[in-house]
Amino acid sequence: MTAPVVAAVVPAAGLGQRLGAAGPKAMHLLGGEPMLVHSVRTLAAGPVDLVVVAAPPGYAEEVAAQLGGAHDGAELLVVDGAGTRSDSVRNALAVLPPSVQVVLVHDAARPLVPRTLVEAVVAAVREGAEAVVPGLPVTDTVKQVDTHEAVVATVDRTLLRAIQTPQGFRREVLDAAYGHPERGDATDDAGHVERHGGDVVVVPGAEEAFKVTRPLDLVLAEAVLAGRRQAGG
Fold first, then answer.
1. Which of 26, 44, 147, 194 is an S-S bond match for 74, by CB 3.0 to 4.6 Å?
2. Residue 147: inside a domain
3. What is the average per-residue pLDDT within 78-103?
4. CATH number where 200 lies
5. Residues 115, 42 contacting (CB under 8 angstroms)
6. What is the pLDDT of residues 187-205, one digit of tens each?
7. Which domain holds residue 84?
8. Which ranges constitute the DSSP H helices of the chain?
């Protein structure tokens, strides 16, 4: 097998407390399969050569067994995750071989991301971007409030984007951004790049790439998946 050039890191160590899951959130079933399986299958079917999953500590063997043939088309590594998302990503980055040039980071809880979005993010990095994030225009009115919940401003939503994953990076850019743990955590990987002074660009996101966080999200995901299966997708 040729040396991997494009790798996808999937932090999957979180617990699904808001989802009401009894165990790891990524292992919650969607259409009879763990959400993580759906995410890995899509990544492996696209331009990704290697998938590295950061599993909940103590679940690495179970996660590897569950993924079985879901990673056909790509190599698979499963490492122990950590207490924070950022530290889980660091654990995964540490095992990437030197041949990797492009790194995607994808939330396991976005199981219905379309393959076309994965391909678009990789293409944007290959075309020269340091960091790429998919985003959708914000449709709700957004208010800025103070600590007492009093409105202090109405934000211009035309300048806002709701950011999704996978996010894509040149390998050296992401390594450098994650090389400063003293800067603390971030809610997404591009946040680390921004703190490090890197340039981040947005490409159009996809409605199906929503994050499954609460029970209502799971109901929507089941409906979308059922529609795909009915359509033969």
1. 44
2. no
3. 95
4. 3.90.550.10
5. yes
6. 899 999 999 999 999 999 9
7. 6-132+166-231
8. 35-45, 60-67, 85-93, 115-126, 171-177, 189-195, 215-231
